[in-house]
Amino acid sequence: MGNAVEFVKINKYFPGVHVLKDISFTVKEGEVHALLGENGAGKSTLLNILHGVYTEYEGSVLLHEKKVSFKNPNDAILNGKISKVHQETMVVEDLTVGQNVTLGYEPRKGTFIDFGRMNREVDAILEELNCNFRSADLVSSLTAGGKQMLAIAKALFHHSTIISLDEPTASLTMRETEALFQVIEKLRKDGVTVLYVSHRLEEIFQICDRATILRDGEYIETLDVKGTTREELIHSMVGRSVAAVASRLKPSPKTDEVVLKVEHLSNEHDFHDINFELHKGEILGFFGLVGAGRTEIMRTIMGVDQKTGGTVTLKGEEIKGSWNSTKALKKGIGLLPEDRKTQGFMNLSMNYDNIAISSLGKYMKGPFVDESKKIKNAERYFEEMDVHPRRVDYLTKNMSGGNQQKVILARWMSTDVDIIIFDEPTKGVDVAAKAEIYRLMEELVAEGKSLIVVSSELPEAMGISDRIIVMSEGRITAELESNVDFETDSILDFAIGGK
Prior knowledge:
Radius of gyration: 25 Å
CATH superfamily of the largest domain: P-loop containing nucleotide triphosphate hydrolases
CATH architecture of the largest domain: 3-Layer(aba) Sandwich
Helix content: 25-40%
Distance between the termini: 40 Å
């Protein structure tokens, strides 16, 4: 067996960040090769280089021993015979399956699309993949698993010899996952090379031949899956002391007073029977892998999404009747959303407006809003948080990720909320801004506020939390105390669904 893919000294920079550092390894022809690492290890960036999404990088990519450089993903599909199956499947809902599979490359009769031939060719591929839908069906009628199969059918239509799957089972049912594994098995038999990215270790052991581990943008090692253990994989993925990233500088001001109590909280799809308490002055961490249901719980507590069962008790008072984020804010809960670009701030507003939006009552002069009060408030926080550029009249959307996050933080610090939920507070934020945000969290609890921090970065969750609640696939699998139970490998094990 020759090499299907070879990466040679790949380096990739984004403004101010060295994302991939000298990555070199090979993938053999006809193997299922796992790409592993924590969120932010560089897996997706590497795949994007392979597929021609990023064309600016240092180093070389070889396919079947020949150096390639693709202009775009289309070029990679046509000339490299290499396809990507995305986690969020890219489909045009209003077209048929056949039109989606052949999009842009439809078989033609003169100037017209030859639908008969298209449906025959696509049906033959769907048949081969054991799909229960056909070329003429509308894509809008497919399940998540069906759309995933459609993406694989598309790769086969283009005769791809290398296919990458990025978290393909994240939104699939057990049965759909089984069907996917049978297809991967078949592809392997047909000599197709599969690159497989997943957080679910049991899947890696089930279908992969070898696994390459990346950590913080560096190549760690390539292991033979049959000859390795779950512990070795986890250790390889995490393998660093946790204290280096987030750590508490002051003693915890946590008290016994319960400010938020959640009992048997459920919704239809994302989480079931959730029970926990938040204490005054506490930083409570929620750790889990993507799709564990943590964000959905927080949105439900905030009243953005509705629950189907269970109760939420706030400062001793059970929340009854209709509940929404405005009422939550009045009752003293604020949320820093994960997706700050679309939910965190108003795109066309300046910093001082975004900071004042949740506490307008403070800036009134009679019936009018006093702009100068808003500006003064913003300047105070800009100074305190070391925001750059130091311009409160700057559009928030033009700030860097870390500084946007500080603007949103200032917004909640300007209100009188006692409970703040941080959803992935340092996602896409550089190390210096992270340290700043951790320091602010400590200040907030010192002032008597209570925080919930949802994080997919284990070192962060362990470094900053008094307690950690670990979730896997919509359920709580563990509740751990900081000084006793924080242990990297076992927390990851709980997050992967272990007991």
